[in-house]
Structures are given as structure tokens and as C-alpha cells.
Amino acid sequence: MKNLIFLIIPILFIGCIKDDILSDTVDPVLRLTQKAEAIAIDESFQFEFIYLNNVGREESVAVTWSSSAPDVISISQEGLATALSTGNSTISIEYQDENGLLTDAFEVVVGDETVEVEETQEKSGQINTTSTYALSGDFTLTAEENNLVLVFDENYNASTALPGLYVYLTNNPSTISGALEIGKVETFSGAHSYSIADVDINEYSHILYFCKPFNVKVGDGEIQDN
To answer: 184-217 as b/e, with b when 16 or more CB fall inside 10 Å?
Structure first.
């Protein structure tokens, strides 16, 4: 019996591993996260940003802020924009890391009132296997107050053969390092959902499935704007 157990474990381990060797690096991301469509004249608005490094981890960095029309909207190096005169201007950020120059920008109008860009309330995507195990299905991610609700559709299907399948939110779909564990997979077919507390809908870019006992990726899905 002992020999049988030791034989099964290597088979499971080998079965979890795809032939491809995964890189644990991703492209760095610089993104404006709080922005305004319009700023009322003589008023100010605080822009904010996020930087995700080459392993998908949020990192505090010093960026360069600029305004394409500083006589219309001025911008401090802390991201505080002030409307000075009628017109429009593009607010930009730049950051030079070891991989090159990263930028993001947003056009702003000086108007009668300040209008903040509303946060996306719903995103969606599709899970696909990256292994020899079955994993597929559409999903929707919805913001509800301070929580997220992750809903998988009726077409969801996952293999029951894995010895410990877990689902995560992550910015690096190659590893669970730095990922947010949602929970162990207990539903393997059909519609089901997860509630995730205190997470912003724009905080993560991917859903990730891992065979946790062996720390091996099984599948993923990009979280996309609707």
C-alpha cells in the first residue's frame, strides 16, 4: 500500500506541470487611477496613479507630472491639478524604470464644475486552461460597495482530478507570489460565485488558478473592461 501511495504522488505532480516553463516576470504598468473629466476654474483636483513592477507588485515610485497647457491647468509634482483658465489640457505622468519609459495621460477640460471619472463597476473575462487539466468558463467581476463579487457562468468547467485547486486575483498570472487568495475551488461545474471583501475592482488584472500543493499554474483569465 505504501508503494502505491508513493507511486500516485509523482503521477499527480507530473500531471500538474505543463511542458512550458513559465516566466515569473510581467510588463511593468503605470496607470492613472483617480482622474477628472473636468475641473472647475480656480478649483484643484488630486490625480493619483499606480505603478506595478515587473513581478506585478505595487511599488511606490516618483513620477514626473506634466500638463500640455500649463496656462489652462497647472499640475504639481504631487499630482495636484489646478484649473487656471478655460480650455483643455492633457495631464501626463512618466516613469523611467530599468525596462524603459512608462507613460499614461488623460485629457481634462476646464468647465463649470469638477467632474471625477467614475470607477468601473463591472468587468468580465474568460478562464482558460494552461495545463493538461480541463478549465474553462466566462466570469463577471462586479463592485458592490466595498466588496467584489466574482460570478462564474453556467459554462464553467474545471477538472476534479487536482489534489488542491485554488483561485486567486493577481497582477502576475505566472505566480501566486503577491496574489490575493480567494479560496479553494469546491465547485467544478456550472454557475457559482465568490465574495471578496475590501478590494477595488481596478486593483488586479487577472483571475488565476493554481494547483496549490505543488505551486503549479493550471489556468488564468484576463479581467477586461466591458
So the answer is: ebeebeeebebebeebebebbbbbbbbbbebebb
